[in-house]
Amino acid sequence: MALIEERGYSGFSVDDIPRRANLSIGTVYRYYPGGKRDILREIIARNNQALIEMIALDDSSEGTLDDLWRRVIVGYLRGHVEGRFSLTALEYSFGADAQFKEVLGPIVAEFLQELAGRISRLRAFPALSERELFERVILVFGIIGLLVKSHVKRPIFKTDEQLVEYLVEISRITFEMRP
Predict the structure, then answer these.
(1) How many Å apart are CA 90 and CA 9, to the nearest integer?
(2) How far apart are CA 74 and CA 154, in angstroms?
(3) What CATH architecture is 36-176?
């Protein structure tokens, strides 16, 4: 992950890993036979799993839409504060690197689809089609991502709790908008 942060996805080579980690190239390819693609998949899968664990997406505790988004926002914020999701180069590459988009796109879509499914089970928005619901999840998560990353770098709210409540309100407004 450090190599991707330093050089971007296109700027590092699998050959750089053994030098940095004091391993043989054979060891790297034994665990990641697909090279960079497999390494990237592993990084993103670990981040997604960490976020899912942090926001406790279990059916028994979903509660309301506000409760669900609050857990998502708090987990995402905590992950950024702790440096777990510090993937600036990865995120930049997502917009600039077609190869990166090809690997990351389905992983992100799967996470957002899971989140949309959780919201759908709340049955709070029966007028929204699955597609509309998914599009709103994408929009809200994009807003959350931008504001959380900005706030962690240079606080824009006095407290993290103010940021969380603001984002919960934004999510509610977004979902209540007429289609």
Answers:
(1) 7
(2) 17
(3) Orthogonal Bundle (1.10)
